[in-house]
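Final report, closing paragraph on structural work. Over the funding period we assembled a curated collection of sequence-structure pairs, and we close with a single example.
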Amino acid sequence: MSAKRIAILGSTGSVGRQALELIAASDELTVCALAAGRNWQLLAEQVGRFKPQAVALADVRAAEELTRATAGVCVLSGPEAMTELVRRVRPDMVLTAMSGSTGLPATLAAIDCKADLAVANKESLVMAGQIIMTSARSAGINVLPVDSEHSAIFQCLHGQQRGAVRRVFLTASGGPFRTWPERRAGQASLQEVLNHPTWQMGRKVTIDSATLMNKALEIVEAHWLFDLPAEKIEVLIHPESLLHGAVEFADGSVLAQLGSPSMATPIAFALHYPRRPARASAPLDLAAAGGLHFERVDRRRFPAVELGFEVLRRGGTAGAILNAADEAAVAAFVAGRIPFGRIVEIVREVLNSSSVNPEVTVESILAADAEARRRAEALIGAVEAGSGGRRQPQA
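Its predicted structure, as stored:
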């Protein structure tokens, strides 16, 4: 059996790097294409090790440096480079491991090429889940979630009657500030925000985990991946991060997926599907775990969670608005322009003040994205003006 040809979009990020290590350890997988934003140095190392047919960099100058540093590989560059890469290489599977809304065009290109999708870029599903899932069904391809929670639910649903599903549970650790006083948490530094208690992830998703905005995005993601209404999606705080997702059925039984808090497990599951890999991460010692604890989300303390359900209520381009506002607010926090506690406030204000287009097309999504970023920037500017232009301390 020939090896499955994988294209990794976002190969220099956290998920992309882990995926490459898993591929290196497998005889069933091979790398045919790699893409990144601007980190040409690491991409050059990956090219030397994995010998892809072609690579892509969004940053043109970085691509020029990569071309000089490598030989014998096709280097594509510019904002459309990832899309062109997918169409040129035509892989068996595309792992969308880039962060943010930039992954949407390449995701749609992968579907056009009838490549299976391993989706770590949840933003594309939040923005355009209706388009992606409808197109994927028409193309007859698999859409495999890489988020640990959705991978867990996918595994629990395998072979089950969808009509028997009563509800699904997405779990959240609660982030680093679950037990902090609210006022103190609102002034947390970037370093404190990035100190997640159980997971090692990229910067953006770690910040979203601290606000629980990642759960808002994952609620929308679950809706599209599993064709579930809002009332069948629940979020639970689970500080140990050992139970990643669960499904309750009509007979009262609950199936859950447990494992060590390592992204290697859901990445490997998606890459190898439908075969289960021999081993991806350290086995879970249930006796050593001691106990599993669950609690309902305090939506006053974590108001971001409610925004995911608000998107499902409003439909249309609401997901694109939510995602764009969050990306803008998180970037502003990282840059020291706003305090941590203002991220969710800005996202909520943008979502509440924006008109939702009920017609979901690529054009309407991009228009909603641009308008939401404009509104978010205006609010960020107002926060800066109110603080006298002082940068927030990020130490």
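The longest strand covers residues 29-36. The chain has a mean pLDDT of 94. We thank the funder for supporting this effort.
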